[in-house]
């Protein structure tokens, strides 16, 4: 039922406890905290190669399943999406912007296409291959030149597949 | 940039992410900010249990998790009878970057939205925002959570949209 004109069907509530109650002054300057956190990420970066190796193994295994087991394609596509989604989120944090963007493009195909069919597999394979190359060649930083062209090509392929 | 010089050591943080490496990254950043009290969970149901035991002051939460995802978890935090703190700030940290994702998270009661890739500066700014600019909570027939209107429109003369429970804000 429509509320009468002028009536208020909502309440505004001021929270009784706030996170600010637990915060005091006397900490380092924000810029110092941020620099310290960035230095910490640089330390962790040393391990990221190993993590990425594991993530790529999971991705490749998921792709194999998608390829050879058409009966469970929906489940296998979801597993591949999850693997690519993890890489998409983490790779950029460690400077692998190209890898993150390729993973994003793959996620878009797997998420937005109602069902993955045989004709989609070459497009998936192109993404997986490109990711392998980026990892093998340790292509970091903002993508330019050939990596950028490859990414644009992959994104265009996905857009075309989504129109079908 | 936020006001300088916070001591964040008393803030208890619950980190919820199904990826162990991501939890490690978040924790490392928070430690660099001077935080010391953490609990971790791998998905929403486990996170809610941790919340009951640990009673955190801040939640940093991923979206895509199974069996209970971040959106369902946040809804439970905001609306469950036994929720230990329905007003707790929740920062959603996710690789979901489309606008409709942001709106869905907002409508679940998320306080701050942070898209991966994660940067130290962006994470610090979201935390500072929960401290410096806490928003009142709004309760309607269909929503309980932080005020979704961040912009104040003092000269707005249109109808009060919150009077209609079907209206999203």
Poorly predicted tracts of residues of chain A: none
Helix percentage of chain A? 55-70%
Output the radius of gyration of chain A: 22 Å
Distance between the termini of chain A: 43 Å
Main sheet properties of chain B: 5 strands, parallel
Q: How many separate helices of chain B?
A: 5
Biggest interface: chains and residue counts? A-B, 50 and 56 residues
Report the sheet with the most strands of chain A, covering strand number, pairing sense and barrel closure: none
Number of strands of chain B: 8
- SSE order of chain A, as H and E? EEHHHHH
Provide the succession of SSEs of chain B: EEHEHEHEHEHEE
Helix coverage percent of chain B = 25-40%
| Count of DSSP-assigned helices of chain A | 5
Any overview of this molecule?
The complex is a heterodimer of chains A (164) and B (169). Chain A is 68% helix and 3% strand. The longest helix of chain A has 39 residues, at 30-68. By secondary structure, chain A is mostly helical. The mean pLDDT of chain A is 92. With 169 residues, chain B is an alpha/beta fold. Mean pLDDT of chain B is 89; it is low at 164-169. In chain B, the strands form two sheets. Chain B has a five-stranded parallel β-sheet with strand order 3-2-4-5-6, with helices on both faces. Chain B has a two-stranded antiparallel ribbon with strand order 7-8. Chain B is globular and about 45 Å long. Strand 2 of chain A pairs antiparallel with strand 1 (6-7) of chain B, so a sheet runs across the interface.
């Amino acid at each position: 039922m429509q509320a009468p004109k002028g009536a208020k069907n909502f309440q505004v509530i001021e929270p009784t406890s706030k996170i600010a109650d637990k915060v005091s002054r006397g900490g380092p300057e924000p810029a110092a905290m941020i620099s310290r956190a960035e230095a910490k990420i640089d330390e962790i970066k040393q391990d990221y190669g190993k993590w990425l190796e594991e993530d790529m193994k999971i991705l490749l295994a998921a792709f194999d399943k998608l390829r050879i087991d058409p009966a469970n394609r929906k489940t296998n596509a979801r597993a591949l999406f999850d693997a690519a989604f993890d890489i998409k989120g983490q790779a950029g944090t460690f400077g692998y912007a190209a890898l993150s963007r390729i993973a994003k493009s793959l996620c878009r195909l797997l998420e937005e296409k109602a069902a993955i069919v045989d004709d989609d597999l070459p497009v998936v394979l192109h993404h997986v291959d490109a990711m392998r190359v980026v990892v093998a060649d340790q292509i970091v930083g903002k993508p330019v030149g050939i990596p950028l062209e490859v990414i644009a090509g992959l994104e265009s392929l996905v857009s075309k597949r989504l129109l079908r | 940039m936020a006001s300088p010089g916070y001591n964040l050591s008393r803030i208890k943080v619950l980190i919820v992410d199904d990826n162990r490496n991501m939890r490690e990254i978040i924790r490392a950043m928070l430690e660099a900010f001077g935080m010391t009290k953490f609990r971790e969970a791998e998905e929403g149901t486990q996170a809610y249990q941790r919340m009951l035991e640990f009673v955190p002051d801040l939640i940093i939460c991923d979206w895509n998790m199974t069996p209970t995802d971040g959106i369902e978890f946040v809804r439970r935090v905001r609306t469950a009878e036994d929720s230990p703190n329905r007003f707790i700030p929740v920062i959603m940290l996710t690789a979901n970057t489309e606008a409709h994702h942001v709106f869905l998270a907002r409508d679940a009661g998320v306080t701050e939205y942070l898209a991966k890739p994660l940067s130290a500066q962006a994470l610090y700014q979201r935390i500072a925002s929960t401290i410096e600019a806490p928003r009142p909570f709004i309760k309607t027939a269909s929503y309980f959570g932080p005020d979704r209107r961040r912009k104040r429109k003092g000269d707005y003369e249109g109808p009060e949209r919150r009077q209609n429970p079907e209206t999203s804000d």
